[in-house]
Specification:
Rossmann fold; 8 helices; 2 domains; alpha/beta
């Protein structure tokens, strides 16, 4: 079984590593172009590219695959490369580029996607974030045959994972990435033996996981403490939930819901001390912030954070 792999972030790199470790031949990897990152804005290769180069796998980084798009010449070169690279199937995981029909039709066994949700719930770019933010009790991995619609293809395998009360996007990402790697290797083994029965996605229960923006990570304390706690978990590690106090933007990494109604306006500090953390009034109940970060500083437990950034009960977050 010869597998072309298309993916970009760590979630995809875990799957590529599993495919490689299982002994499948990977003649080519597609990934997003290098992006500037860090304080120096140096160009950084994706996690998938780094793994591929470490293991001698050829890498291509087209900016587009659409023949009728903005960069048709680049797309034509990518199409030619795919057609000239002998392979049986393409596996796609968090690639970041749309695969047009002209690409989906190239592999003999089609294109298979590893998606981080229980489809049809949370189709789209940020399924892990949105599942936590919405308070879902479970999520999982769906392996599906790709078609032109956004995550609409028939499903080959699905496995659920409970969302723990303390799961962040970071911790849940790692669980799902590991599961995705296990499931895709088993799917490829089954494909070697013949066709796998596919299940059409139900029309009921469709939701869309819009891409996460930095702007939406600013917290509105008029929301309930439960909603805010979920947002803090969902935006950890990116983009980091935050609010402003005394003109300074502070990020929140961990928090707890507290069944206290102080009578203070939402966003008001109820108390701030090393023993109890930073307790903030919300639209309903209160929120105890237990890990915070000031600009240029480290993520710190509330007890340590308050030593360098005192907060008074007369202040408010906005």
């Amino acid at each position: 079984m010869r597998v072309i792999f298309a993916g970009t972030p760590e979630f995809a790199a875990v799957a590529l590593q599993a495919i490689h470790a299982a002994g499948f031949t990977v003649p080519l990897v597609l990934t997003q172009p290098d992006r500037p990152a860090g304080r120096g804005m140096q160009l950084h290769a994706s996690a998938v590219k780094q793994f591929a180069l470490q293991h001698g796998i050829p890498v291509a980084q087209p900016t587009s695959l659409k023949l009728d798009g903005k960069y048709p010449e680049i797309a034509r070169e990518a199409h030619e490369l795919l057609r000239n690279t002998p392979h049986d199937v393409m596996v796609v995981a968090a690639y970041g580029l749309i695969l047009p029909r002209s690409v989906l039709d190239i592999p003999r066994l089609g294109c298979i996607n590893i998606h981080g949700s229980l489809l049809p719930r949370w189709r789209g770019a940020a399924p892990i974030h949105r599942a936590i933010e919405s308070g879902d009790a479970q999520t999982g991995i769906t392996i599906m045959h790709m078609e032109e619609g956004l995550d609409t293809g028939p499903m080959l395998h699905m496995q659920s994972v409970p969302i723990a009360a303390d799961d962040t996007t970071g911790s849940l990402h790692d669980k799902l990435a590991q599961l995705g790697g296990e499931m895709i290797t088993e799917t490829l083994r089954q494909l070697q033996q013949g066709a796998i029965p596919a299940t059409v996605q139900p029309e009921q229960g469709v939701t869309y996981a819009a891409k996460i923006s930095k702007e939406e990570a600013g917290l509105d304390f008029n929301l309930s403490a439960e909603q805010l706690a979920r947002k803090i978990r969902a935006f950890n590690p990116f983009p980091g939930a935050h609010a402003t106090i005394a003109g300074t933007t502070v990020k929140f990494w961990h928090a707890q819901v507290v069944d206290i109604t102080s009578g203070k306006p939402p966003g008001s500090i109820i108390s701030a001390n090393a023993q109890e953390g930073v307790l903030v009034a919300c639209g309903t109940h209160s929120l105890r912030l237990t890990e915070l970060q000031k600009p240029g500083g480290k993520r710190l437990p509330a007890s340590e954070f308050l030593k360098g950034f005192p907060i008074e009960s007369s202040q408010s977050f906005c």
